[in-house]
User: What shape does this take?
Amino acid sequence: MSTTPERTGSADTSISGAEIVLDNVVKRYPGQKTTAVDSLSLTIPAGEIVMFVGPSGCGKTTSLKMINRLIEPTSGTIRIDGEDVLTQSENDLRRRIGYVIQGGSLFPHMSVAKNIAIVPKLLGWDSSRITKRTDELLELVGLDPSRYRDRYPRELSGGQQQRVGVARGLAADPPVVLMDEPFGAVDPITRQRLQDELLSIQRELHKTIVCVTHDIDEAIKLGDRILILQDGAQIAQYDTPEVILGAPAGEFVEDFVGSGSALKQLSLTRISEIALRTPTTATVGERTDDVRRRAESNGDMAVIVLDGRGRPCGWPWLRQLTGEKLVEPTEELINLDHRATLNDALDTMLSSSHGAAVVTGDRDQYLGVVDFRSVTEHIRMLEEQAARD
Amino acid sequence: MTDTLPATRSDSDVGATPAPTGSSRRIARLDRETTLMLIVPPVLVLLVFAGYVLWRQTADLDGTELRQLRWSTVITLIWEHVRLTFVSSALVVAIAVPLGVLLTRGRFRRLSPLVVGVANIGQAAPSLGLIVLLAIWLGFGFWTAVLALTLYGLLPVLRNTITGLQGVDPTLVEAGRGIGMSSAAVLFRVELPLAVPVIMAGVRTALVLVVGTATLATFINGGGLGDILQTGISLFRFSLMIAGAVLVALLALLIEWLGRVLELLTRPKGL
Assistant: This one.
C-alpha cells in the first residue's frame, strides 16, 4: 500500500507549525495520592497532527492543557519552537496557540464574525485586516461569509458551530493548534465531514496540531502520529497509525486499539485510493425514456441523477422514474467526500438501500460509486500483504 | 455541506441577503406573554389615572383634602417618590453588582454565603423598623430614607448577580482564557454580558420593592406619596387614603413596566 499524500505532507517545505517538546512534565494535584501526569517526555514534530488517546482519566486532557498553561505543570519544561512556555506571560502565550474545544464553545452573545475576531482584536489588528481575515477563515471552513458572518451561534447547527470554533482557533494564524475532543459533540456524519475538512485544511496550512480524543478511529484517521496514554499519562505507545495497528506495543495498546485491526486499517485508506464504479448517470431535465433505455443497456437498476452543475442529487431506482422528464429527486442523497476513509464509506453504504455510496470530489462534483465489492477487494489485498510481511 | 439549519427559526433561510438588523429581530422574537406584559400595564395605568383625574375634578372635597390633593403638591410628591426610588435603585446596582462580581472571584467565593446571609437579614427585617432605626441613628430626611431603601433592595440584585455569574457555562470561561483573554476581559466581555438577563431580573425586583417601600419614607420626613396616605390615616380621611394608595399603586405598576423594558433592552443579542 502506498503512503497517502497527507501523511507525507509534513515533509513539505511550507510548514508553518512549530515543534513542541515536553520534558519530564509532571502534574500533581494537591491532596491526591496519584500523579495526574507522571514525568511525560515527548516531542511533537512541527507540522504534524498528533492525537492523544487513552481511557478517561489517563491525563490526556491535562497534558494538552499544560501546553497552553490552562493547567500549570508541577515540574518539568514545555518548549514550543525552543521557547519555554513558563517564561512567557499566559495571555501572550495563548494568543499564539489556537484552542479548539468540543462543540466550538462559541460565545452566544457574539456574532460569528465577532467570535472569530477575538484573538486578532486582542493582538491589536486593524479592523479592515480583521474583516478580511474573518471572511477568509469562514471560506476556509466552508461557510459562506456573506451568509454566516452576522449570525449568532444559536442560529447555527452543531456542525456549523464547530466549524466556526475551528476558524476561531486559526484566527491569528498560530503555529500550534490545540484541540480538545473537537468533534465529540456532533452526529457521526457531520463528524466525518469535519474530520475530512480538517485534513484538507491541514494539507494547506501545515500547523502543528495536538488533538485529544477518546475515539481510536478518529485518532487513526486524523493522526500523523498517535500517542496512546495509560494512567498517569504513561506512554503506552507513540508512533504512526500504521505501526500502532501493525505492531501494537503490548497488551494495553492491543486492547485499546481493539479487535479487528484489519477493519481499523480501513480508517487508513481514503476512498480516493481505490477504484470507483461508474454506473449510469443522468442529468436533471433529460427525457426519462432515454435514461431508462441507457440504464437498461448498462444493466443498471438505478441511475444517479446529477444537477446542472454536475453534483449528484439523487439515486432513484428505475421504477421510481415517472413523468416525461427527469426532475430533481426530493429524497436527500448522502454523499461521501473522496477524502473520507473506507470506514466512513462502509458506514454510509450500510445505511443506503443500494449497498453503495456516491463519491464526490471538490465542490461536490460527482466522481463515481464505492460499493462493498471494492472495499472487500481492498481488505483482501491488505490481508495478502500482511501475510507476505 | 449537509448541515441543516434549525427549521424552527423563520429567518434561518435568509440566504445571501443580509440578516435583519438587531432591533427588528428582537421585536420579532417577543413572544405573546412578553408583548402583553409590555402593552397592558401602561394602558391600565393610563385608564386608572384618567379615572383618578375625573374623580379629583368632580368630587366634593373639604379644605384639608383639597390642600393635600392639590396638583402641584401631588406632582412634587410623585417626583420625590420617583427620586427616592431611582437614587436608591442606582445605589443598589452600584453596590450589589460589584459585590456580586467580587463574591464569585477566587478566594472571595467562600464569603458569598455569609454576605448573602447578611443581605437576607436586611430584607427580612421589617422595613418600617429598618427605616425608623436608621432615622434614630442618622437623623431624619431624604438620605436616611435612601440608605434604608438601598439596604432593602440590595438582596435581589446581589443574589441575582451571583446566580447569573455562576450560571455562565464554565467551558465558555475556560474557552475565553484558553484563547488568550485576560480574566478581566473574560469578566467584562463574556461573563457579565451573559449574566445581564439574570441581573436585570433582580434589578426589576429591587425596583418594585423599593418603589413600594418608599411610601414609608414619609415617617422620617423623606417625602414621597406616603405623605398623602399618612395624612389620610392620621386625619381619618378615606378619600386621602384611597387617593394615596391608588397613586402609589399606579407608580409601582409603571416602574415595574419600566423594569421590564430595561430587561428587554439590555438583553444581549444572540441569547
In short: The domain at 31-266 of chain B is CATH 1.10.3720.10 (MetI-like fold). The first helix of chain B runs from residue 22 to 29. Chain B is about 75% helix and 0% strand.
